[in-house]
Each structure stands twice: as structure tokens, then as C-alpha cells.
Input
Amino acid sequence: MRSVADQWLREVLLTLYRRSTATRAEIMAETGLHASSVSQAMRPLLRHGTILKVGDLESNGAGRPREVFSLNPDAVYFVSVDLEAQRIRFALLNFVGDIRYRWEEATGWEERLEVNKVFHGISMVLRNLDSRQLSRLLAVGISYPGMLDDQGRLTAFNLGLHDFPLLSELREKASAHRMDHLPIFIEPDRHSAVVAERWLGRARGYQNGLLLFVERGIGIGLFLDGKPVEGWRNMAGEIGHWKIEPGAEDPCGCGKRGCLEAIASSPSMIRQYLESTGQPSSNLSAFRITDVFEKARQGDPAASHVVERAAKAIGLALSYAINLLNPQIVILGGDLTSADDLFLPRIEREINQNGVPQLTRGIEIAMSALGLDMRLKGAGALAFRKSLADPALLRKMCSPVSLARGSVLPAT
Ligand SMILES: [Zn+2]
Output
């Protein structure tokens, strides 16, 4: 086999991941590579079963039909972990970003992160892989909320973590769980969300967008002029602690009052509902946010007030963000996806009332199609992108796929 430049392999694989399917001409147009470079990269990938021919498009003139290619879903697997939310979520993702298996580890709304739970969850996912799939497992991607400093210490107010040594804890516990052979890539939740929506979700094809997701905290992901916005310390978009209701008494995990997160995160909405119905706020973990949403749908005044206030706060924060960033699309995710009927019209109303018309006219406000899987899929996609940059993992990705009974033979 002639040696093929790693960069060509990377670009072909990345293009197929992002587009799902592509012809040779589309790969050339997207990567800017010469036809012979694309052919040299694709030949071993097809022979080894890393990519597959999935069909033909009719010729758009004289000549042969155009072949359509995709990644082989079973060529590579990733485990992804989402640390945000009431439960830690785990998934096995195949090479095209589909979730093949899920696992959850329970945590309370106010419980601190236990790194042992992360590895227990990963081991529960691995338990469901057969030996062939295990041999094609490439890496683990973990999406974390909050802010990570230069020393790998995480501050995530809504997880109750201040300067928590996330990186060293992960390394230490990986060794204790005999998983130190498995590469682990960690990513801020906002990056996971942006990549998931741009590669696999509603933001495909958009160059300027903003994602806002509500769960245990409130996070935001940004991409402008086609590029993710990261900021000086990789912390751009910390919208959860914008003081959105000056004078409000609602306590926030950051120590201040009246932050967006203190009014509109899922546990904050449950807390307000409990308080206004005279129930102890220690009941927080006994309630699900969907219970509050359901009560609001039934016309319960306390639940309706909580939803109205949260939607108003989110809409107001978004109107400021839209004025600052001029996005073409705003995508709402997390727990909001189970209550689009309650939130979408209210948030749109607030944006229209407070935004500058020249910026808000024609803007698309949409619910994430990925729902609660947004960051799980994004963490897997980012683990894929980081694996491409590692020569040993790239080789493993491109190594011959042994064919299990019943699997699809690659076109040769
Ligand atoms: Zn705060």
C-alpha cells in the first residue's frame, strides 16, 4: 500500500462525519484537496471498510453516475459522557454519531460530582460491547459544565464544585478502574453543544448561531462567521450568571442573587414552585422539571408563574445576546425541549419586545432536534475530532474492520 498523508485521511473522514454522505466531488469541494489526493486517501479507507459506498447519484451530464460514500457505522465506537443534568448520562456512539446504548447514573440536584460514578457508568457501557466492538472502541469524550482553569480544576456552581481537580481525579480514578489505556478527552459543554448542532443537528449549514440549554445550569454555545467562539480562557458565553433581575432575592450557586440560572435553571424552577406552594425546598430531588411543566399545562397558577418568569428571563437574556452577537439562528435545548409549547412562544415574544428589530427580524428561534442527547452526541463528535489529530488513534480508525456475521461488506 502506498503511504497516504495523514492529513488527507483526516480531511476525508471529517468531511464524511460532518456531511453524513458525500460524493468525491463534494469531498474535493469541501476539503480543497486535489482529486488524486482524495482518491489516494479513499482507496485504503474503502478497502479496509472504514468508509462504504452507499449508492449512486445519476450523472449530472455526460459520464458515469456519481458514487456516494459514508463512514461505516461499525468501524469505530466512542463512549460519551454528559456531566450536566440531574443524572450523569452515558452513551455508546457509533462512527456516524448514532447512539447505540445508553446508561445513566443517578445524582441528586444538589449532589456533588463523584468521579467514581463516571467510571462506573463507562464500565456499564463497555459491558455491553462484544469483543469485536471493544477492539474498535477508540476513546471516551466527556462534556463538562462550568469553567476549567489552566491547572485542570473545574468550577461548576450548579454541580457544587469549586476548583475541583477534575483532570487529576479522572487520571487517578481511570487507573484505579483499570481504564488508563482508554484515551479520555474532556470538553466544555458549550463546545459539545455547538459541535453536535452544527454537525448533526439544526445548525447544519448555518454560519452564525447561538445555542442555549437549560438543565441543572444554563449554558450557551456560540459560533460566529463559521467558527466556534471560545474566548481568552475558553470560557466565552457564561450567560448563566448574568444578573437578569436586579433586586431579585433568588440565590444562585455562584453566591450572588438574581442570576439567570437562579431563576430559569431546572432546579431553580422546581425550587420556586415548591416555595410558592408551601413545600420544603429540601424536596428538590423528589420533583422532576417535567412535573412542573405538566402542572403549568394544566393551568396550575404556581407552575404557570414559574414558567412565565423563567421564559421571560431567558428571552430577555437572549435579546441582549442577539444584540451583541447578531446570530441567524437561536437553538434552545436541554429540558426546554420537553416544553416547547410553553417556552417557545413566550421566549419569542420577549425577544421581539426587547431586541433591536433590525437584528431580530427573520431570526430563526428553534428547539434542538437532538433534545437531551445534544451534549452526548457532541462529546462523541469531539472525541472523534481529537482522535483524528492523534496519529496512533488515526491508524486504529483506518485499520481493517473485521467483519462480523451479518455486517455489510464494504464496496471495493
Ligand atoms: Zn450566579
Notes: The longest strand covers residues 99-106.
